[in-house]
Amino acid sequence: MAGAGVNRADDERPDAAPRFDDRRDLLRPLRLFGLFFRVGALNELQYRANLAVQLFQSGIALGTGLIVLGLVFGQTSNLGGWSQSELLAVMGVHILMGGIINSAIQPNMERLMTDVRQGTLDFILTKPEDAQVMISVREFRIWQAVDIVVGGIVLAIAVSQLQAGIGVGAALIFALTLFLGAVMIYCFWLLVTTAAFWVIRMDELHELFEGLYQSGRWPVTIYPGWLRISLTFLVPIGFAVTVPAEALTSRLTVETLALAAAFAAVLFLVTRWFWRFGLRHYSGASA
Fold it and tell me: Which residue of 42, 194, 228, 263 shows the fewest CB atoms closer than 10 Å?
């Protein structure tokens, strides 16, 4: 039975201690991801009908977003200072980041919750790899990555409509902010999911996050101050969607970029600590 309340000595769980040090191969997490990606892709390619389903769902979501965008700009020339092409860039980032979440982040967090509930996390903790890395790269839903492609296409269209266009520097900064945003979303998911060590049933987490994530279809700057802060620092949707869009539309300031990098670093360290703290309170299947 999985759950909380029974502490186990650190030496009973060899993976409870952090595995990263200067001597470790820093590329090993990427190699593990590549291995699990190949296995997951081979499994999912057996069900190619899922591709058609995902294409249909992505098409519906994209069409709905474009209709709403058209309705908004049928009444005004800008929304909170954002032009139509700039909001199209926000939509593209939102779709692309959603593809990253649904293909790589959410599946691993859902499996972690299941493992904690069923006590099968022990199989991970006894392996000679860092537990956090293992639980973060085991699952990859390849068909969900369709949204990454769709988001990229929408972004390309948006950039082509921007008067100034973008240069190599802006593209690199965009890639950096997108990476930082993905790291922050991953940390948010893992922080919340780690609570499964104490709160066993968390079945509605996906629906809750999805509802919050939909607010990222629009720049967080259009929301009231309290909501803008909440969607930036409590649930880092602003950093994950609006900031990369600002990088593409020449709105991003050096201060915002520095804040995003600092917040991502702090959030990762806090998440790492909380994960290790949760492991010490995991009772396992033998409890």
Answer: 42
Reading the block at residue 159, the tokens are 């950039």
Q: How confident is the model at residue 19 (pLDDT cuts 50, 70, 90)?
A: very low
What's the whole-model pTM score? Answer: 0.84
Contacts of 42 (CB under 8 A, 6+ apart): none
Q: What are phi and psi of 253, to 5 degrees?
A: -100, 160
Q: Tell me: the pLDDT tens digits for 174-204?
A: 999 999 999 999 999 999 999 888 887 777 7
Cβ(185)–Cβ(236) below 8 Å: yes
Token digits of residue 131? 């537990």
Helix (H, G, I), strand (E, B) or coil at 82: strand
3-state secondary structure of 79: strand
Q: Is 1 helix (H, G, I), strand (E, B) or coil?
A: coil
Q: How far apart are CA 280 and CA 121, in angstroms?
A: 13
Which pair of tokens denotes residue 69? 């965008």
